[in-house]
Amino acid sequence: MQASPLFGILATVVFGSSALAQSNMLVTEEAMVKASDPGIEIYVRNKRPANMTTFRPEQTIIYVHGATYPSETAFDLKLDGQSWMEYIASRGYDVWLLDLRGYGKSTRPAEMADKPEANSPIVTGETAVKDIGSVVDYVLQRRNIARVNLLGWSWGTTLMATYTVRNASKVERLVLYAPAWIRQTASLVQAGPGKLGAYRTVTRAQAKERWYTGVADDKKADLIPAGWFDAWADATFATDPVGAAMTPPVLRAPNGVVQDSQQYFGDGKAYYDPAKITVPTLLVHAEWDKDTPPTWRKRSSRFW
After folding, report:
1. Which residues contact 249 (CB under 8 A, 6 or more apart)?
2. What is the rounded CA–CA span in Å between residue 219 and residue 206?
3. In the chain, which residues have pLDDT < 70?
4. The AB hydrolase-1 domain covers which part of the protein (predicted)?
């Protein structure tokens, strides 16, 4: 969540040396993009330098979130005065984020107004990739460019990689941050017991517990700066007013990702073929990540 210098390095290495700081003044715009299905709109946010007047593929980035939380509070939450999104934009990039349907400010499918057990899992990878495609086409048209850079986090890496396999001509470069792959350990996504319903709920306590999974006890006290978790949780749970009104407050998240995980990565099957990714790609793993540990990649070397 911190606007780490790592992302300045990533910007230069992955997207090119044009990532030099240009202006601290940023422009922010928001829009609702029509999805491929009637009645569904996808929320997008854009930040870019105020003095940016021309747009190029290598300077244009679209970010998508993971399985549970929306993009804006992972990518554009000010902590210590600046968000990750702003950090990249201030270095000369035209930066976009999107919330998949069922997340954040995007349309909530009708099933989310019912009890979760009343419907089957919603927003599978196939649906999510279509939403990404709608936003990519929107950005390409708005900027009159042919390609964009894609940045996915966690489940978002599966989605962005799948989109790239199918639409290589529209992708300049690809960054997979905490990429999911064929599992050798149990998933940390808490879907609850019994039949998999349309969506799941997550409490603040569960979110915090997952944050610390895999962290040594003697490292936990200094891992997150004081107040940062609460700032993130306050902003994140506020994106779901219905869930926030429950006792205890929860965040609702579609279960399509859980169904996909069980059917593919959890069953030893690849969701997409990495060999079909033909654009420059960077994989970033965290040492203590127990949900998508780096050891998976070593054990799956025939794919990567």
Report:
1. 203, 204, 237, 243
2. 19
3. 1-24, 185-194, 290, 294-304
4. 84-182
Contacts of 245 (CB under 8 A, 6+ apart): none
Helix (H) or strand (E) holding 252: strand 250-254
Give percent of the chain above pLDDT 70: 84
Residue 303 lies in a domain: no
Count of domains forming the chain: 1
Q: How big is the chain, counted in residues? A: 304
Q: What tokens appear for 105 in the block?
A: 């400010």
CATH number of the domain where residue 112 is located: 3.40.50.1820
Q: pLDDT digits over 90-116, tens only? A: 999 999 999 999 999 999 999 999 999
Which has the closest alpha carbon to 292: 160, 150, 188?
Answer: 188
> Is 195 within the bounds of a domain?
yes
Residue range(s) defining the domain that contains residue 62: 5-296
Residue 301 forms part of a structural domain: no
Beta partners for residue 152, in sequence order: 64, 176
Q: Two tokens at 23? A: 């202006």
How confident is the model over 8-51, as pLDDT tens digits?
A: 445 544 555 444 444 469 999 999 999 999 999 999 999 999 99
* Residue 74 backbone dihedrals phi, psi, to 5 degrees: -95, -40
Residue 203 lies in a domain: yes
**Element (H or E) spanning 270, and its range?**
none
Pairing of the two strands 94-99 and 148-153? unpaired
pTM exceeds 0.70: yes
Cα–chain center distance at 263: 21
